From TrEMBL, chain A:
E.C. number(s) listed in UniProt: 5.4.99.25
Organism (species): Aldrovandia affinis
Domain Pus10 N-terminal eukaryotes as annotated: residue spans: 127-301
Name of this protein: tRNA pseudouridine synthase Pus10
UniProt KW Metal-binding keyword: yes
GO cellular component, one term: nucleus
Domain Pus10-like C-terminal: 307-538
Subcellular location: Cytoplasm; Mitochondrion; Nucleus
UniProt lineage: Eukaryota, Metazoa, Chordata, Craniata, Vertebrata
GO MF annotations in UniProt: metal ion binding; RNA binding; tRNA pseudouridine(55) synthase activity
Residue ranges with Basic and acidic residues bias: 67-92
UniProtKB/TrEMBL annotation, chain B:
Entry-linked Gene3D superfamilies: 2.40.50.100
Nucleus is among the record's keywords: yes
Chief site of localization: other
One cellular component term from this protein's GO annotations in UniProt: nuclear speck
Pfam families assigned: GCV_H
Xref: PANTHER family: PROTEIN ABITRAM (PTHR13651:SF0)
One GO process term, biological-process aspect: regulation of actin filament polymerization
UniProt organism field: Aldrovandia affinis
Family note: Belongs to the ABITRAM family.
Name of this protein: Protein Abitram
Keywords: Cell projection, Nucleus
Length: 547, 178
């Protein structure tokens, strides 16, 4: 079959498409939606100006019908095909660029009336299928608006992906329009697959990707770390979806964090499930004419998270790891997390963060040695690219900001690598140093036996101090080695290497006898822990960075 | 604690717990209980130092957590972070009965509303813990008050100062302390 595109001869439409296009335009579809429903996959066809496309399409439907379609399009709701003007005159009309398809000299009155039916009214009206998305928001003007919104956010990016969110009722209207096409095609003994229709989103991107790319000077790709989202709403037709709830109630289960049950996914599912008969009975086909066009939502930008890892020392016994808030009131003025993340947030110009670490220490515990591995996920960073030198400067900035903590091995890592930090956390060993008080006066010899204790198995009930938020259990733990240095008659220094997850404080004071054996039993005296330091966390991630 | 071995730093109980008291339980003179409330709202029930068992240094004959034919505190089991399945106790729910060798029986009560988390099984095999370490290893039970009641449960209890007052007045009235 040969292409019968009129005017510039660009449209890859076939003779058999003519009654379909005619019916679609008469039903109130815009020119681009008419192409979509004819499954035209030629992107350039959508990219030409809307006016040019409309007049070409107009010319196409006005052309003399072939014998094939003659007499078979009886139920198409427009005027009879015999009233179409001759090809020659139509060519003249489009060459003059009359996008409105209005009166043109030399065209008989009767034909002009026919034009009003199929094109003029369709164009003055908002499209029944796309609600105006492909009519009014697919041009340089809107691309400029999107680009301005992106530029105002001052992101650093070298490509972007454009995403579009459409009102849920578009799926209902799409289905209704598709049923119209399906009936026409079926009446001709042919068939067409709904999946071959070009989706609104797809057509939108074909047109807009290039325009937005031009405005911002970076490629618009199918995948990118930087996402620009545009969206549309159309309150006037929001209720289009409601009838689906009566036929597919299981598709619309109320969910927390959702404003409406009529999410796009739920509507798509319900439309797939509903029978054609029910759909036709409950929803007009073709869809009703909207009075208003859809409205554009504010353009949203999102850069994927950047992960920064390192190790920290904590030198203060009055600094919690994370902000300490009880009954909405702040207990300590700062935290390890805040001291580390404040400079990161401002440098990456990030909107938020998630802090994680390999274990944590109590507020009164110092972390010495090489420090504790940590990772920070920076959410929606406006700047994401830093050289090694810049990261080193960031580390210095953190270290200069406070003498309560110190950070080393700061580096940008992947999301996957952060998993290494949590791997085998339980199997790792940790080393501690503790200042011990004994009730019974001691001499040097009284603590000699401690170094001979190896691989001591202890049973720890969940400590009372964390029992309100952890399950009650008895956990076996191993204290691999201990050494003791005598200080005075009531004090000695104890070094311990233990399985990760051992509660050291409870091992020392016994926690009401709930950790067994405990140091009180070993020392045959009440003992208490006055100071505790983490000397090392044996997790070999992140890799060390040379100075 | 012997003289000269007073420590300069606060003990574990002083650091993390508030001491509350209930005296003369069920009208029985001097049967005083101590409730140690952790800052995380968990409560540990112990004998107060003025309880006859401690005051008179009784020898323990037996400790029984079977408080009725159908209910034993030893059957108590909790699971998960929310401590599902724990027995719910009201203020006057008995926790255990202690019999001394002189034939006296003392009932220890919950004193507060809350979920029973655990009872101290060690005192069954080593009853002397009750006398030697009444406020630590010789504790009776651990109870978790409801979050919304963590403040109100102590309203009917005596503070440390009020308790000391009661004990002092008691000594003044009775020449022979109980
Ligand atoms: Zn449209």
């Amino acid at each position: 079959m040969h292409s019968t595109g009129q005017g510039r001869g660009m449209l890859p439409l076939k003779v058999k498409d003519r009654p379909i296009v005619r019916a679609l335009l008469a039903a109130g579809c815009c020119a681009r939606c008419a192409l979509r429903f004819c499954c035209v996959g030629l992107q350039s066809a959508y990219r030409q100006s809307y006016e040019d496309l409309a007049s070409e399409l107009h010319a196409f439907v006005s052309a003399e019908p072939s014998s094939m379609e003659h007499g078979k399009s009886g139920d198409a709701p427009e005027k009879g095909p015999t009233e179409r003007p001759p090809c020659k005159k139509m060519r003249l009309e489009t060459a003059q660029g009359s996008g409105e398809g209005g009166d043109t000299e030399g065209i008989p009155e009767a034909h002009a009336d026919a034009d009003v039916d199929t094109t003029a009214t369709a164009e003055s009206k908002v499209c029944v299928a796309c609600l105006g998305v492909l009519q009014y928001f697919c041009d340089k003007t809107y691309a400029k608006k999107v680009a301005e919104a992106v530029t105002a956010e001052r992101y650093q990016f070298d490509s972007l992906v454009l995403s579009v969110s459409l009102p849920a009722q578009l799926s209902v209207r799409e289905h209704s329009t598709w049923l119209l096409v399906k009936k026409l095609v079926r009446d001709k003994g042919a068939c067409q697959d709904k999946d071959d229709i070009i989706q609104v989103k797809e057509a939108f991107k074909w047109i807009m990707n290039g325009l937005v790319s031009q405005e911002l000077g970076v490629p618009v790709l199918a995948k990118s770390l930087f996402e620009v989202s545009v969206g549309f709403t159309h309150p006037e037709t929001d209720e289009d979806c409601h009838f689906l709830a009566t036929t597919c109630s299981d598709c619309f289960k109320p969910a927390r964090n959702k404003l409406s049950v009529f999410t796009r996914m739920a509507v798509v599912k319900a439309v797939e499930k509903i029978s054609e008969e029910n759909f036709r009975r409950l929803f007009p086909c073709p869809p009703t004419h909207p009075a208003t066009r859809c409205a554009a939502l504010a353009t949203q930008c999102l850069h994927v998270s950047v992960f920064v890892a390192g190790r920290y020392n904590k030198f203060s016994r009055t600094l919690p790891q994370t902000p300490w808030v009880i009954d909405g009131e702040r207990r300590m003025e700062s935290s390890v997390e805040e001291l580390i993340t404040a400079p990161l947030l401002s440098s990456f110009r990030s909107e938020g963060f998630n802090f994680s670490s390999s274990g944590r220490e109590d507020v009164d515990v110092r972390t010495l040695g090489k420090g504790r591995p940590f990772a920070v996920e920076l959410l929606n960073p406006h700047r994401a690219q830093f050289s090694k030198e810049e990261v080193r400067e960031l580390q210095e900035a953190i270290n200069k900001s406070s003498d309560k903590i110190r950070v080393r091995d700061l580096q940008i890592v992947t999301r996957e690598a952060v998993g290494h930090m949590k791997e085998g956390e339980e199997e790792k060993t940790k080393s501690y140093g503790a200042l011990i008080w004994t009730q019974r006066p001691i001499e040097k010899d009284d603590i000699e036996f401690i170094k001979d204790i190896k691989e001591l198995k202890i049973a720890q009930k969940t400590p009372l101090r964390v029992l309100h938020r952890r399950p009650l259990a008895v956990r076996p733990r191993i204290i691999h080695t201990m050494t003791a240095q005598f200080l005075d008659a009531h004090h000695f220094h104890l070094n311990l290497r233990t399985q990760a997850g051992t509660y050291i404080k409870e091992f020392v004071h016994g926690d009401f006898g709930r950790t067994k054996p405990n140091l009180c039993e070993l020392m045959k005296s009440d003992t208490d822990i006055l100071e505790l330091d983490v000397e090392s966390v044996d997790v070999d991630w992140p890799p060390a960075i040379e100075d | 604690m012997e003289v000269g071995e007073q420590r300069e730093t606060p003990s574990v109980i002083d650091r993390y717990f508030t001491r509350w008291y209930k005296t003369d339980l069920k009208g029985k003179p001097c049967e005083d209980h101590c409730i140690l409330q952790h800052s995380n709202r968990i409560c540990v029930i112990t004998l107060a130092e003025s309880h006859p068992i401690l005051r008179k240094e009784k020898k323990i004959q037996s400790i029984n957590y079977q408080i009725s034919a159908g209910c034993s505190r030893l059957q108590n089991k909790v699971s998960g972070k929310s401590k599902r399945g724990g027995q719910f106790l009201t203020e006057l729910a008995p926790l255990c009965r202690i019999t001394s060798t002189d034939g006296e029986e003392y009932t220890i009560f919950s004193c507060i509303r809350g979920r029973l988390l655990e009872v101290n099984e060690d005192i069954l095999t080593r009853p002397n813990l009750l006398l030697e370490k009444p406020s630590t290893e010789g504790y009776i039970a651990v109870i978790l008050p409801k979050f919304e009641e963590s403040k109100s449960i102590t309203e009917g209890l005596l503070s440390r100062a009020e308790y000391e007052d009661v004990v002092l007045k008691r000594a003044g009235v009775n020449v022979e302390p109980c």
